[in-house]
Design goal:
With 503 residues, this protein is α/β, with parallel strands linked by helices. The protein folds into three domains: 3-243, P-loop containing nucleotide triphosphate hydrolases (Rossmann fold), CATH 3.40.50.300; 248-336 and 421-503, Rossmann fold, CATH 3.40.50.300; 349-420, no CATH class. The strands form six sheets. A six-stranded mixed sheet has the order 6-9-10-3-11-12, sandwiched between helices. Strands 18-21-22-15-23-24 form a six-stranded mixed sheet, sandwiched between helices. It has a four-stranded antiparallel sheet with strand order 2-1-4-5, with helices on one face. Helix 14 packs parallel to helix 15 (435-450). It is globular and about 70 Å long. 45% of the residues are buried.
């Protein structure tokens, strides 16, 4: 029997879940078949995470039913879901970092002889599993904390195989991986399907889906807005289903922008030994300049140095033709620089603070009267900014922790609007956010550059750089190695510079 003709191993029927003031899921149905992959996409806040938690036994639905092999099942805990062969590989890997790879794979079911762990058996079984996943070079005795995120993803998958997993739910599994690591993970997913596993694959990276899934469900506002086969479905079809409206193009930042001949940012010979060397670049008023390169090329380090988070030994920085001394972030802000850092949760936001407090963090002096903060000023400014960047939340008192990734990023970006910076430094501004939020972030970038600011955009997504930037600078091993005008440019041209190819 062909995989597509087999009955579903897991079925969801009419699943609904609500929280105070929010209908997270509404009458969602879904089938997963053995040997097949099914993709789940949607904007942040569309209900994907809630649906995953229902499947994994982390939360119980208010109504609806789950069927495993056609029989009703009610998961009261993740352990019950595991017993039915359901294995979740979450976006934020939860493993015992100080334990070995082998111990993490067989956690809770270590081979024992009496009270003692049979180390030789543990290592041998782990080596066998790792070899099946193409990780022969990984020592199962090494501490997990020493390994790359991609290997940790594989360890989570190996754990699922060791438990007899037959339904794998992968939540944004490639968000932090390099392109070669993405290819390896896709190969593993295809291998699992070939061995009869059912796959639910959640991703914002629409280009990956055709490699791992044959069908797709699009979530919107807690509902299954569309179900379709992936064959013959275009990316524009998916985007329109996700956002509920026609999307002409995301990359519309060039509209209504006039790039001035006057540089707004001039960097000469910037050097921080061991990180980057002799960085010289220009960003003009109204211009969006991309900064590309492989992981470790030094892009983020340059951004941190420009904003005063790290000291540089040599070089100079000019804003609007004036030399500026940047000894810390306060100097950078006064000079007219703004930074949206790579890791918004750990580097830019206070997650338990409300939207309003996060927006005004760089502007506390303007928000104070004598020695006291003015609640009225804070509320007025934060409501104005939230409206401008279209933050989706009940009000500005909502804790940032409860927002989707896209809305959290809008908080970080919007906090700078009242300062009217001359240069925005944006490090991976759309990482881990959905296509609808990406489009709105691009509109924000287009808006402030149209008003005369400049932007330096660091991104690992080459289509993004080619789509929104006027030109792209390429770094390799801490140095600038080339520049590409984006009109008519290709991803291959940028990659050849980034890897040092002579082709």
């Amino acid at each position: 029997m062909r995989a597509q003709d087999q009955p579903p191993v897991l079925s969801l029927r009419g699943i609904s879940k609500s929280y105070p003031g929010v209908q997270a899921l509404s009458d969602v149905s879904l089938d997963l078949h053995p040997g097949r992959g099914h993709a789940l996409v949607g904007e942040n806040g569309a209900g994907k995470s809630t649906l995953i938690k229902v499947i994994a036994g982390l939360i119980r639905p208010d109504s609806g039913e789950l069927l495993v092999d056609g029989q009703p099942a009610a998961f009261r805990s993740p352990a019950e879901a595991l017993r039915h062969g359901i294995h979740l590989v979450p976006q934020e890997i939860s493993l015992a970092e100080d334990r070995s790879v082998a111990e993490n794979i067989f956690l809770g079911k270590l081979p024992r002889r009496g009270p003692f762990v049979r180390q030789s058996s543990l290592v041998a079984r782990s080596e066998d599993l790792l070899a099946k996943l193409g990780l022969e070079t990984v020592d199962p005795r090494s501490p997990l904390r020493d390994l790359r995120p991609a290997v940790k993803q594989m360890v989570m998958i190996a754990r699922g195989i060791s438990t007899g997993g037959r339904i794998f739910v992968l939540d944004e599994p490639t968000a932090t991986l390099t392109e070669p690591e993405v290819e390896r993970l896709i190969g593993v997913v295809q291998q699992l399907e070939a061995q009869g596993a059912a796959i639910l694959y959640v991703s914002h990276r629409l280009a990956e889906l055709a490699h791992v899934a044959q069908s797709i469900t699009v979530m919107r506002d807690g509902k299954a807005a569309a179900r379709m086969p992936l064959e013959g479905t275009t990316e524009d079809d998916l985007v329109q289903a996700m956002v509920g409206r026609p999307v002409e193009r995301f990359f519309d930042t060039r509209q209504k922008r006039n790039v001035s001949e006057k540089p707004v940012l001039e960097v000469e010979g910037l050097t921080r030994r061991g990180k980057f060397e002799d960085i010289t670049l220009r960003v003009h008023a109204g211009e969006i300049v991309g900064l590309a390169g492989l992981v470790g090329a030094g892009r983020t380090e340059v951004a941190r140095a420009l904003f005063g988070l790290d000291r540089f030994e040599d070089g100079s920085v000019r804003i609007d033709g004036e030399n500026v001394k940047i000894r810390g972030p306060r100097d950078a802000i006064r000079a007219g620089l703004a930074l949206v850092p790579e890791e918004r949760k750990s580097q830019a936001l206070v997650l338990d603070f409300p939207i309003s407090h996060n927006i005004v963090l760089p502007h506390l002096r303007q928000m104070s009267r004598l020695a006291w903060l003015s609640r009225r000023r804070i509320r007025r400014l934060s409501e104005s900014i939230a409206s401008q960047v279209r933050i989706k939340a009940p009000n500005v008192s909502t804790p940032v922790r409860s927002l989707s990734g896209g809305n959290q990023q809008k908080v970080v970006l919007g906090r700078w609007f009242c300062e009217k910076p001359r240069v925005y430094i944006l490090d991976e501004p759309t990482r881990g956010i959905d296509v609808g939020a990406k489009s709105e972030i691009y509109q924000c970038i287009g808006r402030f550059t149209a008003e005369g600011a400049g932007a330096l955009v660091i991104s690992s997504e080459l289509p993004e750089l080619l789509g929104i930037c006027d030109r792209v600078l390429v770094m390799r091993a801490g140095r600038l190695v080339g520049e590409v005008a984006t009109a008519g440019a290709t991803e291959e041209q940028i990659l050849q510079l980034a890897i040092g190819s002579t082709k």
